[in-house]
Amino acid sequence: MIFGKSTARYFAPVWAALLIALVPQASLAQETPVSAASQPAAATEAAPAAAEVGAPAAGAVDDKADASTENVAAGSSAYTPLGPEWIKGQPKPGGLDVQPQYSPTGEQAYKLHVGLVWVMAIICLFVLGLMIYVMVKFRRKANPTPSRTTHNTMIEVVWTLLPVLILVGIAVPSISLLSAQYQSAPKDALTIKVTGYQWYWGYTYPDNGGFEVISNMMPEDEAKAKGFPTHLEVDNRMVVPAGEWIRIQTTAADVIHSFAVPSLWFKLDAVPGRLNEKRMMVKEPGIYYGQCSELCGAKHGYMPIAVEALPRPQFEAWVRSQGGTVGAPEPAAAPAAAPLQQPESGAQQPAADATTPAAATTPAATASPAA
Ligand SMILES: [Cu+2]
Fold it and tell me: Which is nearest to 162 in space by CA: 66, 274, 18, 361?
């Protein structure tokens, strides 16, 4: 009887569930392969969100909407730190959603997040609707003699298959995000080593001469005076080139810290004696804040992270201002060769000969003409 009369009614939820299962996948399929071509469009899309999050000084909104790299201190060869109008990734009071994302992985993750919220909402409403229907329709007053039905093949098949379809629909974009997060950086990517200290960060640039930048929280008064968020701004930021993959390696000098920047979808533990590695990309120039995310002692809450993404030329200007070097592929080979040479003993021999004094002072200089 149940079959004949209302079979169609039982099929309705099947279609609903199919829809639920396929919607997040379809929305994700559009942008799962993050190509260079899709980046400009995504960048302009993100710009309004940035304006919303950013500092009240709205003078630079036009620059942001453009998001073209030339707009940062155009034409200057010298480095000047970005001002508060360039703040893009930071928490805001009363914020409920995930921070606007400025990395390809972050954008992919944000889409999955939105899709999942919809799946959850639809399922919750569907179950709630069923419960209200049952409570009203089959209450004791309206239905004095309850049905003795114990089995219904159709219903059982439906309520087994539907959850399976929904879970498969969620698993596909979920696993592809997982694999995107664990892909390693391209071979020629810039490497930055992040070291957690109690209680500040150190950023080392092995590809640019190996200098280290020590980054401490900016004092509250100074941050306020300069228009930066307190407890997030630092004295020396981690400067990175925008729009390219970067290899971030984390370690710690004392206890476990965690390097986390929410708007870049980046979090990686910094563990003493270990070197963890993950790729990072900041799609557009700006300032992105994060915090140590592993309880590391008394001043755990006072070691913020500030990532400053700059166009390549400005990044290189910054590297030079730090006493670092910017070069072609050769410098990558030089550090590998240098340790084998035993700098001390290597320096003594030419000094004794006194034929090549230049080589004595700079062992790296001998390596680069050879390479
Ligand atoms: Cu820490």
Answer: 18
Higher pLDDT, 40 or 197: 197
State the CB neighbour count (10 A cutoff) for residue 172: 16
CATH 3.50.50.60 for the 190-321 domain, yes or no: no
Residues 6+ apart with CB under 8 A from 7: 154
Q: Is the pLDDT of residue 132 over 50?
A: yes
> Using 50, 70 and 90 to split pLDDT, how confident is the model at 41?
very low
Ligand 1 centroid, distance to 290 Cα (angstroms): 11
- Closest alpha carbon to 86 in 318, 241, 286: 286
Measure the CA–CA gap between 8 and 19, rounded to whole angstroms: 17
Average pLDDT for 31-36: 39
Report which residue type is found at 14.
Answer: V
Question: How many Cβ atoms are within 10 Å of 332's Cβ, its own excluded?
Answer: 15
In whole angstroms, give the CA distance from residue 366 to residue 138: 89
Please give the residue that has the higher pLDDT: either 293 or 26: 293
Query: 266 pairs with which residues across the strands?
Result: 261
* Closest-CA residue to 258 (of 306, 295, 302, 297): 295
Angle between helices 104-137 and 153-181 (to 10 degrees): 160
Distance (angstroms) between ligand 1 centre and the Cα of 44 equals: 34
From ligand 1's centre to the CA of 296, what distance in Å?
5
Here the tokens at position 230 are 């307190």
Backbone angles phi, psi at 237, to 5 degrees: -85, 165
Distance 227 CA to ligand 1 centre (A): 25
Residue range 159-192, pLDDT digits in tens: 999 999 999 999 999 999 999 999 999 999 999 9
Query: What's the average model confidence in pLDDT over 254-281?
Result: 96
